[in-house]
């Protein structure tokens, strides 16, 4: 950018020199200065275009990175949901097994209690007969 500024300043000096002197050399220098100014303008335009292209590329890269991050977050959420579903199913299976075990124990305890009651009734009936 400093070179562009120097070229522009040089071109201005040549233009000023040409305004003060109408000789052939002055006219040639003025033409060279004008050409240098055009080159400086072209270089500035090219730099502006390059900056715009770089900004656009940066925007595209940012959008792509954001899209990728969103996809990764979605995949992580899906994996977490799957893990939660598996854990819930495992917990339900454990609760079902515990309930079945508790039911079996309750039936066994009830059967034992009924057997003891029947035995006690038999003994009471035996005592009444004797």
What order do the SSEs take from the amino end to the carboxyl end, as H and E? Answer: HH
**What is the helical fraction, as a range of percent?**
over 70%
Query: Percent of residues in beta strands?
Result: under 5%
Radius of gyration: 48 Å
Number of domains: 1
Query: How would you characterize the largest beta sheet?
Result: none
**Low-confidence parts:** none
Total number of strands: 0
- Shape from CA axes? rod-shaped
Round the mean pLDDT to the nearest integer and report it.
Answer: 79
> Pairing-aware structural class of the strands and helices?
mainly alpha
Number of helices: 2
- Alpha-carbon distance between the two ends: 126 Å
Structure, explained:
Residues 24-130 are annotated as: Disordered. Residues 24-101 have a biased composition (Low complexity). Residues 1-17 form the signal peptide. Residues 119-130 have a biased composition (Basic and acidic residues). The protein has 130 residues and is mainly α. It has helices spanning 2-20, 24-129.
Helix and strand layout, with pairings?
Layout: H1 2-20, H2 24-129
Helix pairs in contact: 1-2
Q: What features would you highlight for this structure?
A:
2 helices; 96% helix; rod-shaped; 130 residues; mainly alpha
Q: What's the short version?
A:
This protein is an all-alpha fold.
């Amino acid at each position: 950018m400093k070179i562009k500024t120097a070229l522009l300043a040089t071109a201005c000096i040549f233009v000023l020199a040409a305004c003060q002197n109408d000789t052939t050399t002055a006219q040639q220098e003025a033409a060279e200065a004008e050409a240098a100014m055009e080159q400086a303008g072209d270089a500035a335009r090219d730099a502006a275009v390059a900056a715009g292209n770089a900004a656009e590329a940066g925007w595209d890269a940012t959008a792509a990175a954001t899209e990728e991050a969103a996809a990764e977050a979605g995949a992580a959420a899906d994996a977490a949901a799957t893990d939660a579903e598996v854990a819930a199913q495992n917990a339900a299976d454990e609760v079902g097994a515990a309930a079945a075990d508790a039911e079996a124990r309750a039936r066994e305890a009830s059967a034992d209690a009924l057997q003891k009651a029947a035995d006690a009734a038999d003994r009471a009936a035996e005592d009444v007969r004797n």
